[in-house]
Each structure stands twice: as C-alpha cells, then as structure tokens.
C-alpha cells in the first residue's frame, strides 16, 4: 500500500485543477490530473488511484459515460463535482455507482470531508456495531438502542437504517436505498421510501422535525450524518 | 371563348375573358339581326331562282320541299322571327311560281292553305328549338367560363405571398364579373380607408363609403339597391379573417336583367370566400413565422444563459476553493502554493468581473433587444479576444494575424465574445498553435480560428449548417451555440471546414457597401 493515498482529479478547467492540486497535496494526498474523460479512464487504469474526483462537464464525454466505463474495470470511489444544471446527470452518475457528489462551488473542507467518508469504509471493513451520539446500532443482533433503551424497529426499518448507517457520511440515492431494502422491482417507489424515512426519524431523531442523523439531499437521496469524532 | 388550358397563374391570364353575355334576355325569340334577315332573304331568293329555272323538270311537290328546306335552315340559323318571315316568303314565292294561276299570289285551292300552315308551323318550331339549343350552349359556356375564372382565381390566390396581392387578384376578377368598378377598403385607425380600386383612380362616392362602413360595422353584405333606386352603386362585402374583421370589398351593381346574373352572384360569393381563405392562410403563415422567430430567440437566450452560468461558475468555484484551502490548510501549505492560490484568486476575480460585464451585455440580448450595431474594427475585436484568451490560458500559443480590415457594422462586445469562444474551443480540443486570422472574401469579412486539431465531429459540423440553435449534438459544448447565435444576431454565419492538417472555424460577417 502507498504511503499517501492517490487522488485522480478529472476537470477540464485548469484553474480548478490548480487549486485542488495545492489543497489536496497540503491535505496529505498525492494527486494526478486528467482534463478529459478519455484521459481520466487511461489514468485510472495506469495509476490505480484510491479515489477519483470527477467533474460532470467534461468536453469529450458526460460523467455518466465515464462512470459506466470505469465501473467495467475498477471499483474505486468516485466523487462527482456537479453544477446546478446537471442535476439529472448527477443522479444518474450516483445511481451508476458514483459514491458521492459535491455541488459547485464548494469549500475545500466539504470536499475533504466527503473524500474521507468515501475512503474510510475501505479501511475499516464490516463494522458490526455503530455507536453514534448515544445511539447504538448492532448490525448482527438487529438491535437499536438509544441511551441503553431498546428501540422497536420493523425489519424493513432496520434494513433501511443499516443501509444508511453502514454508509455513514455518504449520500445514498433513492434508487440505491430502494434496491437495497425492497429489491430491484421497487426502485421507483420514492414516496414509499419517504414514508419509511419519516418513521425512522420519529423513532431515532431527538427532534424528528429537525433531523440530525438522517439528512435529506433534495432530489437525490439521504445521507447518514457522520460524527467526525467517532471516526477519526 | 378562351381556349387556353389555364390553371397556373401566368401573365397571359391577365387577358382572361369574362363570361360572354348573350345580347338578349329571350334568346329563343331573339330579335332578328340585319345580317340574319339578309342571309335568309338571299337563301330564299336562291331557292326560288333555282326552282323557277328547274320548273320544267321538277314536279311541284319536290319544289315545295326545296322551299321547306330553305325555311328550316333559315329558322335554325337565324331564329324564330326570321323563320316565320322565311315561311311566308317561301309560300309567296311558291304560289307565285307554281300555283295556278301562275305569277299571281292568289290562293285559290283550299289545300294551299294547309301548305301555308305547315310551313309556318315548321318554321316556328325549328326557330324555337334552335334558339333554345343556342341558349343552352350559351349558358353552358357561361358556366364554364365562370368555373374557369374561379379556378384561375383560386390558383392565383394559392400562390400569393401577401394580403395586397389577394386584394389585387380579387379586384381584377370582381371588376370583370361585375363589368364595373371594384374597390377594396381596409380598417385603419377609426375608419375604413380605400386601399385599392379598379379601374385605377376610381374614387367611390361618400354614399358608397357610408355603405362600406355599414357593411364593416355590421359584419354583413351591404348590397346596392336595384337600378333606379336611391343609394350606392356598389355592393359591399366585409371579409372575416380568423374571426376578426378584414378588408371590405365592393363591386359595381350587377345588371338586374341579365340571365346570368345569378351565376355571377354565386361566382362572386365563392371568390370572396376564396379571398377570405387566402387571407386566413396568410395570417396563419405569419403567426407561424412569428412563433418560429420567438422560439429561435428563446433558443439563443437559453444557450447564452447556459454558457454564462458555466463561465460564472468556474471562477466562483476556483475562488471559493482557493480561499477555503488557504484558510483551512494554510499552515500546511508551502509558501509557493499559498502565492499561487492567491494569484489564482486574483485572476479568477478579474475573470469574474469581465464575465459580469458580459452578463450585463448579454442580459440585453436575453431581453430580446437587438444588437447595438456600430462601426467596429473587426481586427481590434479579434485582438481583444486573443489577448483575453492569452490571459486565460497562458500556456497556449495563440497567434493573431489580422491585417487591415474594413470596418463592419457589429457590436464589438459580441464580436469579441464569439472569437473568444472559438479560441477557447481550439485551446480545449486541439493541440499546437492556434491562429486567428482576418480576411476579406468577396462582400464578407472572415474572422477565422485555425488549429491543428481533428476538427468538429461531423454531427456538430452538420448542425452548424442548420437553422436552429438547439439540438446541438452532445459534445458541441456551449461556446459554439453562442457563436452561432452571435453570428446570426450580427447578420452573418458561422462555418466549419478543414484547413490543411487542422480545423478552421470562421465567422463570416457582411461588409456594408459604404466600407468596402
């Protein structure tokens, strides 16, 4: 394993590459750069980076295509940089296997946090017990308790919770959650998912009206809030 | 009668004959014409002469048949009255020549009276039948002429491109159908105004204008009263175009005693409906054209907005990213990196300022306001675009080769933006140096950006040649649609071609005559 993790930055704007280069090096990563989709795929094969940061507005192919081709060969985490008018492309990229997205413009802290979330599960594989903010989730025993008090969840609610909390800090699209919990026949039943998220929030959140654990990514999906303390 | 097989409106049609009028109301008892009388007398004289000469050889009953034949011919050819007269003449001649006592007109035998009656009956029947036949032929010809006129009008109306043409065509036909003046009036301001008249220079009287006004306001035909009554001499018909009032057409009163009056009235009615339909079609075509223009403007706006948001976002993302990097990772950043980030922030802030300036310019375009054309040195605009491109991509080799160029009518900002977009495209997609040239090609000024790249994908090049701004194939980017929009706004076009080993994108703009 490399000493420093290698990040592939794919963006056709030299100015973005420029500041990302400085920032990522200072944050302790190695970087390589690509300015087009073709170049990105070639670099990914040759360098085997630990993570790819992919801008959706590439000149030669759209982000969806890059991810599709990438996924044929490699399974590295991908964070998508998206603009407001690329909402559909962003969701498709996430459904196709991009791990997360950061809307442009972004502060470097936000991007670094997303990168850490995407890189982390690959280091600490298979968490059995998730403990966060007084909440204890035992994935093997299918038990959830808050401050020692057992919470009653239906099996589906628990599956949904496990899918979210197991990917803490990462966005889970509606489609991905529906597929994981209800199966491929239900990938479009977003209203259904919304009802279950509501129920989970009622049971888990201290204030269901202002959720702190299950965060909504409007139009995209949900994200389990990661407590930076517990994962450092 | 017009024998040309005519449908297509050609200039020869101007001489189209209107349905011919029979000279009299009662065709089958038509008054004899001098020619007819003369012809009949001549024929009768010939027969009498021949019969007189052949008296020795021909028996009486054969001679009388000769006379009867002449009477029948006269009746058929010249009508009822001539036939009757011929019959009387024939009887007299026969009596004079053949009946005892010879060379007197005295009828002594009773059966001679029967002969007279038979002659008269045959002559009148023949005259009447022939007259009626002729009348039917005339009527059929008249109907055919009317139909031909209608089909001609409808062919002409199908080819019109403007309302004035419709009026002109219909007036010509109304003028012929009514055999009198025809006028067209159109609503203008708060009243009707004469827009055309045939014969030219014909001016309707005040009472006629009043009648037209009534027709217009009530939305129904205002017919001229019968001859001899007080009132206007013209009938007026208001036309409806898409439910709203159109022009009012008027034609001279039809002579009431004509047998084909009904036919003419119906023909006029059909022609007016055709005119209405032609006007309707024109108004629909106009609406469709307006809609097309509006959609094109909308497309331009959408493309401009998309490009603009891209151009604004990149510097914003750079500035925000660099600032947060300096703030959050400042401690760990080497001094070189810090300096470079600060430089990036400065550059991008300047870029942003320029874009905001563009935004203000383009907001005007977005609002659909036409470009503010002034005299512009295209070379200067190209140089400015190149300078900007050099600042944006310091590593790119961009050569400006614009010599002395004529001034053109354009908006400098738009011109610079479009050249910049082309250079930006070349920088992004082509390796090697980029040349920006300015030349004159005929009556066009050509600003071209040449690179050593693969050129546009065929789909994009194909799209450039098309009319619309949307539907750009994936990968066309946003710069090209804007260029195309700007080229069109400036009255020019954007073309793509191969040039040696590279691609050539050219902005071709018209050179005004004054500058050439």
Automatic annotation (TrEMBL), chain A:
Keyword Transmembrane: no
InterPro entries referenced in this protein's UniProt entry, alphabetically: CheY-like_superfamily, OmpR/PhoB-type_DNA-bd, Sig_transdc_resp-reg_receiver, WalR-like, WH-like_DNA-bd_sf
UniProt keyword annotation of Repeat present: no
Domain Response regulatory stretches: 6-119
Domain of life of the native organism: Bacteria
Compartments (UniProt record): Cytoplasm
GO cellular component, one term: cytosol
Name the UniProt record assigns to this protein: DNA-binding response regulator
TrEMBL record, chain B:
Compartment(s) where it occurs, according to its Swiss-Prot or TrEMBL record: Membrane
Keyword set, alphabetical order: ATP-binding, Kinase, Membrane, Nucleotide-binding, Phosphoprotein, Transferase, Transmembrane, Transmembrane helix, Two-component regulatory system
Reaction equations catalysed: ATP + protein L-histidine = ADP + protein N-phospho-L-histidine
Topological category with respect to the lipid bilayer: Multi-pass membrane protein
Region (Disordered): 1-28
Entry GO terms, CC: plasma membrane
Protein name (database record): histidine kinase
Organism of provenance: Paracoccus kondratievae
